[in-house]
Amino acid sequence: MQRRQVLAAGAAWSLWSTARADPELARRKLVVILLRGAVDGLSVVVPYGERNYAASRGSIALAAPGADDGVIKLDSNFGLHPSLAPLKPWWDRGALGFVHASGSPDPTRSHFDAQDYMESGTPGRKSTPDGWMNRLLAGLPGPAAPTRAINMGATPPRIFAGSAGVASLGVGPKALANQAIDDPHLQAAFAKLYGGVDPLSRSYQDATEGRGEIKRSMMMAPGTASDTGDQGAPSARSFAADARRLGTLIRKDPHTQLAFTSVGGWDTHVNQGGAKGQLANRLASLGEGLDALAGGLGDSMQDTVIVVMSEFGRTLRQNGTGGTDHGRGNVMWLLGGPVAGGRMIGEWPGLDDAALVDGRDLAVVSDFRQVLTPILRRHLGADDALLDRVFPRAPSSGLAAAGLKGILRT
Length: 410
Fold this sequence. Notes:
The chain is of the alpha/beta class. It is built from 14 helices and twelve strands. InterPro entries: DUF1501.
């Protein structure tokens, strides 16, 4: 055995021993939700106290707290979009917090590139072959399991690309209906064909074991079967039912620690709306879905951190078609029992003309990796070596890092 193999084996044993010594780590979970299309963070968590907010937003500006269709007051400067009212109790309980002016440091306004950077964890570098959640999965303390990581969606996401096996949960109530791959005779034939230890065989074995474990877990959960449903990608409209199903699975399967899904439809260039309209309807479905996810998690919510993020924000000023264009800074949502919420987290640069990027955008003060790193370290037990692999070349200090202390309760 070569020296590097001995060192790798020793590191793996050390991580495994850590998890055995601290079984609480195995109960801790992370769910990441990516809002594809660049949601307007300035309409999600509204800086109503900023002079430039209402003056720049025309017909899509939301009113201050107390006014008709006004935002839900969070503090003296920020309010929650009224469509997200189901989430306010989580804020009041201190389990929901927001990191405004956050996002990727790369200045691209391309959806494709920005999502790629956020999922690879290496902004500005397109050559990264794998996703940051797969690198995290490969190095997490504790033994591997077929359903330790779950993707909910019709296609494998960039964030889970890599060598570590990830289980898949389809969308819609028919996601777990029997398919050809579930036929015992077909499985026996494939088992003979892919019974080796090569990468293709291991991928097949992991997929089969993961699907079997998911079905067994969900069979124990009432109300998960149905004859109708959409098998396509998750959308804001269908998110609630899918989210509850995902939460139930995470709660029922003791092996699951990581989960990811995405929700599309947030590119509101035209007729965005304010307290009512296109964006408000989608936010209502999203808020209902997050509340349903928490409901599905049940008691496991106390050990779960849910992170909601989007590839970039949108312009401060309303455009000529009643919408907003591609911008920079956005807002990250943190929800769960371990979150030290009930407050705005991180530094806020303001919306004064001098503070705007390119004279039009909210600045990115908190790098999304600076928000995620303390969660991975303190919640999931990732050490410095693993964090360096998950987020190579990530900033470790600065104004944003100072403002991000105390994201979690413990």
